[in-house]
Amino acid sequence: MSEKLAAAQTPDDILACDDIEMRQVDVPEWKCSVYLRALRADEGLDLQEALEAVPKEKRHRTIATMVASYLAAPDGSRLFKTPEDIAKLNTRSQKVLMRLQDEIMDMQGFEKNADGAWKEKPGKNALSEAVPAASPIA
Fold first, then answer.
1. What is the C-alpha to C-alpha distance for residues 123 and 51, in angstroms, rounded to an integer?
2. Are 47 and 40 in contact (CB under 8 A)?
3. Which residues, including other chains, have CB under 8 Å from residue 83's CB and lie 6 or more apart?
4. pTM: predicted TM-score of the whole model, two decimal places
5. What mean pLDDT is predicted for residues 3-12?
6. SS3 assignment, position 16
7. Which residues are within 8 A (CB) of 103 and not within 5 positions of it... i.e. 6 or more apart?
8. pLDDT (tens digit, 9 = 90+) per residue, 91-138?
9. How far is Cα 70 from Cα 62, in angstroms, rounded to an integer?
10. Which of 113, 105, 61, 111 shows the shortest CA–CA distance to 87?
11. Hey, CA dihedral for 105, 106, 109, 114, is it positive or negative?
12. How far apart (Å, rounded) are the C-alpha atoms in residues 81 and 70?
């Protein structure tokens, strides 16, 4: 039986917590591992807005933008910050970028269906059930 956590008493009780997941992922093709840092809520909404602004027929070209938003240095700072950086990342292997995208989606509480479409993991992403517009999957 798990121990019940104490209830937050003030906003500072919540804001003092480090709730941003970092995950180290091996990328043999790059001869290194990389860190993926989950996005803060404001960063996630900014990314969603940017991706939705891309015409539907070109959204398949946004994988580097998504991956760049999550790639981080060990201290959590972004590695790719400018449009020029992201354009350079777009010259890397699609296979690697897609594998990193899979890790990112897993971090965010999603998994692939048998047909390859993304779906929420049961009980992992209640936000989109409560506020459908906040879901990264349209």
1. 26
2. no
3. none
4. 0.77
5. 90
6. coil
7. 23, 25, 36
8. 999 999 999 999 999 998 888 888 878 788 876 554 444 444 444 444
9. 13
10. 61
11. positive
12. 11
